Amino acid sequence: MTTPSSHHNTILVGAGPIGLEIAVNLKDKRVDFLHIEAGQIGQTITWYPRNVRFFSSPERIAIAGMPLHTANQEKASREQYLAYLRSIVEHFDLRINTHERVVAATRDPSTNIFTIQTQKHTQTYTYTCDNLILAIGDMHKPLKLNIPGEDLPNVSHYFDEPHNYFRKKLTIIGGRNSAVEAAIRCQRVGAHVTLAYRRENFDRDIIKYWLYPEIRSLIKSKDITFIPNTTPIRISPTHTTLAPVTWSDQTTSATTHNTFTINTDPEQLIDITHDFLLLLTGYQQDTSLFKQLGVNLEGINRQPHFDPKTMMTNVPNLYVAGTATAGTQTKFLVFIETSHIHTTRIIQSITGATNNPNLLNNLCHNISQPES
């Protein structure tokens, strides 16, 4: 069933931290706006493992001028930050159409009006607007390896609860923060952990500083089995088959980047027995809305083109904010803490007015280097 359409000055899609910060400031400027979120507020954060802690300090991920305090001045946990986001919504009485997914978006070049179609349960809604803001994030689905067995029931791209792996053989594929933290936490609860990574070593500049020495220690003591320079090529219910990889530099006219070659010689393959397998190999952005609206996608990350002074894309009055500006991040450079400034730029572009400084994270003007 389709409902009649309603028109708004602005439609804001996405209710993560930066989406909420933008909503607070749109409301402060009395802009007629509609806020839509495909899941619950902070949906991507709900996918984080239970009790995981942010890399960034609390003051850097606070939004809308509201302090984020934690016990003992520690990094905020997933649960603390979700509670904080709920308090933001309640404090500013934000109206958000949660669990309503945008399924189609178009722009009429003759009128410059956007038409948005959404789905909520079995109901279809249509809205129109003059300005459209996409704060949709960058982690919508796993980066799949596309190998046999990837969809087996004991294989997952998400790590949730360490207790599930107590006294089980757990193989983890990956070498960034999610894989390293999962390996440490599961070993602590009694899992027999094997960690396989396609690189020789972990990048110390990327791994959370409190995790790096512990993972190295657990590998040295053989409490975690580490198999570097390998990648999985097939999965069975009981085994993961790893193949050696060799790295080399590949130079094009513009850039030099690393590539690897997989050695599938049967004598070189390694079979690892497992009860469960976690493929923590990263996530990718869903660019379908950008494509529908004619946004130019650029570079290896396929990031949307935008004017950094206004956050407007190459499509007039279509804005992008937060980590959505980065596309699929291969090297993470855009975080919550580096995105507060997007709020200022978008509000000024849409309203022509200066933001209320009390409704911003004013650290954004002082952060030249992300802590993450």
Q: Strand pairing plus helix content: what structural class?
A: alpha/beta
Low-confidence stretches: none
Helix-strand sequence: EHEHHHEEEEEEHEHEEEEEEEHEEEEEH
CATH topology of the largest domain: FAD/NAD(P)-binding domain
Could you say what the CATH architecture of the largest domain is? 3-Layer(bba) Sandwich
The global form is: globular
Total number of beta strands? 21
Average per-residue pLDDT, rounded, comes to 90
Q: Please give the largest β-sheet.
A: 6 strands, mixed
The CATH fourth-level homologous superfamily of the largest domain: FAD/NAD(P)-binding domain
Q: Return the CATH class of the largest domain.
A: Alpha Beta
Helix run count: 8
**Radius of gyration based on Cα positions:** 22 Å
**What is the count of structural domains?**
2
Provide a short characterization of the protein structure.
The chain is an alpha/beta fold and 372 residues long. The chain has helices at 17-28, 43-46, 58-61, 78-91, 177-188, 212-220, 288-293, 340-351; strands spanning 6-13, 33-36, 101-108, 113-120, 123-134, 141-142, 155-156, 169-173, 192-196, 224-227, 230-235, 239-251, 256-262, 270-273, 276-279, 283-284, 297-298, 303-304, 306-307, 312-313, 318-320. The protein has two domains: 6-140 and 283-365, FAD/NAD(P)-binding domain (3-Layer(bba) Sandwich); 144-279, FAD/NAD(P)-binding domain (3-Layer(bba) Sandwich).
